[in-house]
Amino acid sequence: MVYVAGIDIGSAFSKAVIMAKNEIIAYRVLPSGGNYKLTAEQVIKEALTKAKLKQKDITYTVATGYGSTNVSFSSETASDISCLGRGVYYLFPAARTAIDIGGQFTRVLKLDERGKATSFLLSEKCAAGSGRFLQVIARVLQIDLEDIGELSLKSKKGVDFNTGCAVFAESEAVSRVAEGASKEDILAGLHRTLAAKIQTMVARIGLEPDCAVVGGGAKDIGLVRSIEEGLGYRLLVPEEPQIVAALGAALVAWEKVSKGG
Amino acid sequence: MKSQYFAGIDIGSTMTKVVLMSEATLTSVIGPTGPEHRKLANRVMEEALAKAKLAFEDITYVVATGYGRINVPFADKQITEISCHARGVAHLLPEVRTVIDIGGQDSKGIKLKEGRAVDFVMNDKCAAGTGRFLEVTAEELGVSLEDVGRLSLEAKNKVEISNTCTVFAAQEVVARLSEGVALPDIIAGLHEAIATRIYGMLRRLKIEREVALTGGGAKNIGLVKAMEAKLGFPVLVPPEPLLTGAIGAALLGRDIVREAVEKGETLVRSQRRLTEATLFA
Fold it and tell me: So what's the ipTM on this one?
């Protein structure tokens, strides 16, 4: 059996996917921390353990993401855009638009019928459109990032925020708490703010169905619902949205192995 | 004739400033706005009255300005901070044609002509280019906001901060620090980043000399120097740069009263209550 691996070292989380031919057999997600090199080694080790494999069983490894150059054991690196496109295509072949809500950036990709990105947008200049916004808010409200989505869905009436800036939203959230607004309503308001930023990006690139949402931000069901409401369109969400780029990297590895023989 | 007193209250995002003035005297108090700023505004006013040994009834006219000016129950009138800053600066520094106000949560550029605002630009949408940028990044570096200006002047090799966003710049400076870059070099880079951002915003205004720097940012010597380096000439800073808006508010109140007296009209004053201000009617 031929095994390949994809590693995605993101600014917030590192992911490893192991495939037997083109079937996922194991994956692992770990916080990236301060040392990408060590995290990369740890995340592949844990994924291999889950797959009951050894490093030498892996024929080809492709690394991607913010810290891809720190992966000492990879055969090659690939761009996050091409990996995302491949990963989305594998999961949702009909997707023509993909939104990736990462820890540092949000990306919107336009995909062709083979999953190749024909154009993309990146929110790199401002934290307001990325998962970073949610991290800031989770800290202020003293809740776990994982609980944000469910909590916000309980809101009856979202608080209106005057600002899109992550820094100003933080102080606005503090004021709203002081005034007695519930965490649920504050979160719902912030989801709408973040969703509006993302919708603007989607509108700029042009929404073409189907549209998938991936990345850590897609695990936030409140945010996903808020984007759906804004776009007026149901989004495709993978079961494990965080590993899509790593999956794409593994698919690049598989292409190499199957073509190169 | 009994002397008349005028009050200006400027409720900013970070500080609340009160000025009481008669023809001859000027009393001022600056207090923090805090998260519950609307509740604290009346306390700053009470403190100023106590300092001036005046009762609230002694004040002929009260003008409120600033970000928290809406529904201040003890003000006779609300006037925008643009008009108040313009009036205040024109009074203190008559030669000024352009005002750069760097506040805790916004920054503005105001063009003056004959003591009035004729044009302005403002950023209150993004923390970059406002006092908050320094507040957040200084905290990340573990440096007090009072020390950053002085420290920035000690820089030998200023670093360039590549991120515009405050959140990302805060991460960037921590990374630089862990790489062993000297603290003053990082801080000087942060000052340059704010100055660049503000200068970019101001370009539309066609900056004319003299230029005055006001707001909390003008109390930071590093920021004054960084702004001067961008502009290519020295700027003027009023003795208490936080007070220009409140002084302008008090002066505009005095103008209103004088005009009413000249025209023989009755002065319209609100039903004042020295209680908590609210943001919502």
Answer: 0.79
CB contact under 8 A, B165 and A104: no
Quick check: A83 and A248 in contact, CB under 8 A? yes
**Distance separating alpha carbons of residues A221 and A48, to the nearest angstrom:** 30
CA B136 to the chain's CA centroid: 18
What is the number of residues in chain A? 261
* Closest alpha carbon within chain A to B33: A175
Most distant pair of Cα atoms in chain A: their distance: 65
Domain positions in chain B are 5-84+243-263, 95-231
Asked if residue A128 has pLDDT above 60, the reply is yes
Per-residue pLDDT reduced to its tens digit, B95-110: 999 999 999 889 999 9
- Whether A167 sits inside 8 A of B35 (CB atoms) is no
Which is the CATH superfamily of the domain at B95-231?
ATPase, nucleotide binding domain (3.30.420.40)
Q: pLDDT tens digit string along B49-67?
A: 999 999 988 999 999 998 8
Nearest CA-CA distance, residue B223 and chain A, Å: 20
What's the predicted TM-score (pTM) here? 0.82
| Selected residue of A104, A106, A165, A176 to mutate for chain B interface (largest B Cβ count, 10 A) | A165
Taking an 8 Å cut-off on Cβ atoms, the answer to whether B127 and A104 are in contact is no
Residues 6+ apart with CB under 8 A from B160: B189, B192
Angstroms from A32 CA to nearest CA on chain B: 15
Residues shown for chain B = 281
**From chain B, which residues contact A within 8 Å (Cβ)?**
35-36, 105, 125-127, 132-133, 136, 163-168
Domains of chain A: 1-91+242-261 (3.30.420.40), 93-237 (3.30.420.40)
Quick one: tokens of B216?
């909390």
Say how far apart CA A230 and CA A224 lie, in whole Å: 10
Residue B279 pLDDT exceeds 50: no
User: Which residues are within 8 A (CB) of A88 and not within 5 positions of it... i.e. 6 or more apart?
Assistant: A95, A98, A109, A111, A115, A212, A214, A244, A248
